[in-house]
Amino acid sequence: MFTIENQVSGKTFQTDGHSSILDDALAHGLNFPYGCQKGACGKCVATIIEGEVSYEGEIPSGITPEEIADNMVLLCQCKATTDVSLVVAELDSVADIEVRTLPCKVQSINRLNHDVVQVFLKIPGDESLQYLAGQYIDLIHPDFDPRAFSIANAPVNSSLIELHIRLVEGGKFTNFLFNELKEKALLRLEGPKGTFYFKEDSKKPVILVAGGTGFGPIKAIVEHAIEINLKRQIYIYWGVRDEVDLYMNLPQQWVNEYNNIHFVPVLSEPNEQWKGRTGFVHESVLVDFDDLTGYEVYACGPPTMVKAAADTFLDQGMIKDNFFSDAFEFAFSGG
């Protein structure tokens, strides 16, 4: 195992030298900048102060001979062969990440239940999208106004974007995506966008509150926490109308595999067979936590749910700066 140190931030991580330095940095939660992840764009260039790296095959086109002579390397392609000390400016916030417009192809479409579809978008060629867990993109089709959808997968394979799309009554674009969109169709996306993202450097336990397809960005956050081996306690509350609206069994799988993850589904209109929690999802949080002072809360879903959570959680001791939200507004006339 080799130790990689960024002299700018003082952060370190371990690598076995089998993966690129960039891949290992991202897996350990460090926001090293990158673009294509294919060695072509040069956005992940860093300076080596001490240590040695190697490339597989020829030197990639994204770095010049002059840069190599100045001890610069492409982090997405090079692998450590010794301990390495380097200099790279990590991305500290969403303001540091470039918003881009990229082509994408529909790789797969999966019906998750009667009104939610899972869409995977593949960014072709030497491009990828750098984003933080919780952010969203605008999906662009020439026949409709752009619509915002949260990214539902962790920022690991950033050339593949997962969306959870709910069929909205009267929504032209969502009706098209749900009923007419075909695999291999070409679209465009613009992003990443939004100031809602996971603050991974905090030490506080986390309460994640999702309403409906607000589970999408919550899924991205949990997957990212698992990827970076986060040990903070994570409490997931997912509120839907009926049991069929719990369109993924992932939360229970997480509970079974990780001791620090907990899950409470909450139904507002359950059938007689349901034996679990009922009512509004934010009320279940209040039942379980007498004092929210020491917690961070991330809430995603309908505006009424997010507002109710914010108002009542503040009364339960939550610090305002520890509440992060993404309220889903649905466009009816344009999309």
Protein traits:
single chain, 335 residues, alpha/beta, six-stranded antiparallel beta sheet, six-stranded parallel beta sheet, 7 helices, globular
Structure, described:
This protein is of the alpha/beta class and 335 residues long. Helix content is 19%, strand content 30%. A 6-stranded antiparallel beta sheet has the order 11-10-13-8-9-12. A 6-stranded parallel beta sheet has the order 17-16-15-14-18-19, sandwiched between helices. The model is unreliable at 330-335 (pLDDT under 50).
What is the strand and helix layout of this fold?
Layout: E1 2-6, E2 12-15, H1 21-27, E3 45-50, E4 53-54, H2 65-69, E5 72-74, E6 79-80, E7 84-87, E8 100-111, E9 116-122, E10 136-140, E11 147-150, E12 160-166, H3 172-179, E13 186-193, E14 206-211, H4 215-227, E15 234-240, H5 250-257, E16 261-267, E17 277-278, H6 281-288, E18 296-301, H7 303-315, E19 323-327
